[in-house]
Write a structure and sequence with these properties.
Layout (H helix, E strand, L loop, with lengths): L67 H8 L1 H13 L9 H10 L18 H21 L1 H13 L1 H8 L7 H7 L8 E3 L2 E3 L5 E4 L11 H15 L12 H13 L3 E5 L2 H16 L3 E5 L23 E4 L4 H9 L3 E6 L28 H18 L2 E5 L4 H4 L3 H6 L5 E5 L9 E5 L1 H4 L21 H14 L2 H27 L4 E6 L2 E6 L9 H7 L2 E2 L8 E2 L6 H20 L11 H23 L5 H5 L4
Parallel strand pairs: 3-13, 5-6, 5-7, 7-8, 8-9
Antiparallel strand pairs: 1-2, 2-3, 4-10, 9-10, 11-12, 12-14
The chain binds pyridoxal-5'-phosphate.
Pyridoxal-5'-phosphate binds next to helix 10.
Length: about 625
């Protein structure tokens, strides 16, 4: 076994009873390796009273509403009108809160592209600054190409035939700069090796990996290699047998129950699928139709929860509401059609806004901040309303899950959910989605009515190799080292972020970072149209980012102080170069507002041009102003 996994032992005991807020033993048949060692103790993760203790959520709970008050509300047209008005008031005022309008407007947005002639003074910079930027752009392009010729060539081949590669390459920068950048500044997202917190491209260059494999890479790439090796070896004798479970499943179930404090588990192949299943069982048991999601929150790419641009169809039976809003809580109190509320806790960094991506970085007004106490207070109030109204509260922990605490988001914020989805890192390097929930919600059939079922099965669910790799991951979570790690995790990452911010300040660089443990966002402190250039300077200095760029840096927790120091130096060097090359030129009239007005003028101009060609309705251009 590779030394990088410190795994808690499995336990061979009689089957244990696991309950929320209790210590947990795990069990596994003796025939498997590591069986027969001392028990593992789960920690009670939740600080506030559980829903079960508030009279809801045990296995006999009836989630359906009934009674005279309920009936009267359902048939009263005045009540219906009142609930409709409340719904409008509970929407966030931005386009993120008005998904249908956003979808319509997004479709109208006309394409226009800057060429080499007009791209470098789009902010009204004087000729000398424009010239400086132009030369720097060419220099940087040459540097990136010369350093990674094989990777660039391979990336171009991929782009020709892999639709996902085409998509991400087209959305790294604000769209008017797309053509200019696409071939001139190659990012070449190809890697053939990883070690510690670094990845290597085809040309042998090593990069600090801040893309974090979309959040999967929590404990470092060496850890997942070890998990994969150990898990594959363990499942080898069973090979591909689907249907019968690999015996390791029971240990996974016990550990997941202990972590989540919930009764039952279902296994899926992706986070998206786990969310689908959560919503389906919530609807089944409540008999209600609608899902509440919060503006800007991502829950996977399923139609049922992805409302607005990105989804070609308008979504049905989904309410997109304002997060951290009293009006939302009031709406939950009055409407009778809400089955569940989905929370993606990463939104605590930017409530009601989509994930910050460099493709939307048209000025310097990206806003992110994280206040743990106020988000915890919000979740607590949401919990209470959901309990009172028998609405299923779902925490979507697919992304954040084990990044914050061993007990995940529930433990970190001290609030319990009725259903919790997990994914990403939990698979120990393999694709996975998991739903944990109260028994009263997880049951998929009705004892009294055998035809009343909630079907949800998938061919590859609980695949033996995924289960064994997951087991190594879960046992690692239960090891003493990881326990100590979680006790220090916030302190470590807050200190690192503060250190980098101090460096930026000392160097008079117009950058700051905001963090939620190891998930960071870069903010820009002077108005500029060119902040998206930073991702390319970072690349040149040896940093690899995810395709959404500087909006989300995802660090693996194995990054040493030494590596962190090196990463900070990369940031400072990249920012210095960017500053010297004139991209942050500014004058008294260049404000974020002025930039956005300028972009609006460009969009309207392009719309008029395309409208006169295609007979675009005249009101469309005024609608588009909302986009900015
Ligand atoms: C909060 C959340 N939910 C669901 C998903 C979807 O997971 P997957 O990509 O595994 O389908 C993601 C993916 O990033 C996510 O961040």
């Amino acid at each position: 076994m590779n030394a990088t996994i410190e795994a808690a032992p499995r336990q061979h005991t009689s089957p244990c009873h696991v309950h929320r807020m209790t210590s947990v033993s795990t069990s596994l048949p003796e025939s498997l390796p590591n069986a027969g060692r001392p028990p593992v103790t789960g920690q009670p993760p939740h600080a506030i009273p559980l829903a079960a203790e508030a009279g809801q959520g045990n296995s006999t709970t009836n989630w359906k509403r009934s009674g005279w008050r309920y009936l009267a509300r359902r048939v009263n047209p005045l009540y219906w009108l009142y609930a409709r008005i409340m719904l409008s008031r509970a929407k966030h005022r931005s386009l993120a809160g008005h998904t249908r309008l956003a979808q319509r407007l997004a479709r109208l947005l006309p394409n226009y592209q800057f060429g080499a002639i007009d791209a470098f003074a789009a902010d009204g910079a004087p000729a000398d600054v424009e010239q400086c930027r132009h030369l720097a752009f060419r220099r940087l392009g040459k540097e990136l190409q010369q350093r990674s010729p094989a990777s660039s060539a391979m990336a171009a081949r991929l782009r020709a035939h892999v639709s996902d590669a085409q998509f991400v390459d087209s959305y790294r920068v604000p769209f008017p700069f797309r053509d200019l950048v696409r071939d001139a500044l190659p990012i070449a997202a190809i890697a053939d090796a990883s070690q510690a917190s670094q990845i290597r491209d085809l040309d042998g260059n090593w990069f600090h990996d801040l893309g974090g494999s979309y959040g999967v890479n929590l404990f470092g790439s060496d850890f997942y290699k070890a998990c994969l090796n150990a898990g594959m070896a363990e499942a080898r004798s069973l090979g591909l047998v689907l249907g019968p479970y690999h015996p390791v499943v029971i240990d996974n179930v016990d550990r997941l129950r202990a972590i989540s404090g919930l009764d039952e588990i279902s296994f899926h192949m992706s986070g998206t699928e786990a969310v689908m299943q959560a919503v389906r069982v919530a609807r089944y048991h409540t008999g209600r139709s609608h899902v509440v999601r919060f503006a800007g929150a991502y829950h996977g790419w399923w139609d049922g929860v992805q409302a607005g641009p990105g989804n070609p169809r308008p979504s049905h039976e989904v309410y997109t509401l304002a997060e951290m809003s009293d009006r939302t809580l009031r709406l939950l109190e009055v409407r009778e059609d809400i089955a569940c509320v989905l929370v993606n806790p990463i939104q605590a960094m930017h409530p009601n806004r989509p994930p910050p991506s460099d493709a939307t970085l048209i000025a310097s007004d990206r806003r992110c901040a994280f206040d743990r106490a106020s988000y915890a207070a919000w979740l607590c109030r949401l919990r209470q309303v959901c309990t009172d109204r028998k609405i299923v509260l779902i925490f979507d922990e697919v992304f954040l899950g084990f990044r914050l605490a061993r007990g995940g988001v529930q433990e970190y914020f001290g609030v319990s959910a009725d259903l919790v989805t997990y994914g990403k890192s939990l698979g120990g390097g393999l694709p996975v989605g998991v739903l944990a929930g109260k028994a009263s919600l997880m049951r998929r059939f009705n004892e009294q009515h055998p035809g009343d079922v909630c079907f949800a099965r998938g061919t590859f669910n609980a695949h033996p190799h995924v289960m064994t790799c997951m087991n190594w991951f879960l046992r690692h979570l239960d090891s003493p080292t990881v326990n100590t790690h979680y006790q220090k995790v916030d302190g470590v990452w807050n200190r690192r972020a503060a250190l980098l911010n101090r460096r930026f300040q000392e160097e008079r660089l117009p950058l700051r970072v905001v963090n939620m443990t190891s998930v960071w966002s870069v903010l820009f402190t002077v108005p500029s149209r060119y902040n998206w250039m930073l991702q390319f300077y970072l690349r040149a200095e040896g940093i690899s980012l995810a395709w959404i760029g500087t909006g989300r840096l995802i660090f693996s927790h194995d990054i040493s102080e030494h590596a962190m120091q090196a990463i900070m130096e990369c940031f400072v060097r990249a920012a210095r170069r960017m500053q010297d090359d004139g991209w942050w030129w500014t004058d008294s009239v260049l404000t974020n507002k002025a930039i956005k007005r300028q972009v609006l003028r460009e969009v309207v101009g392009a719309l008029r041009r395309s409208g006169s060609n295609r007979g675009m309705p005249a009101h469309a251009s005024s609608d588009l102003s909302i986009l900015l």
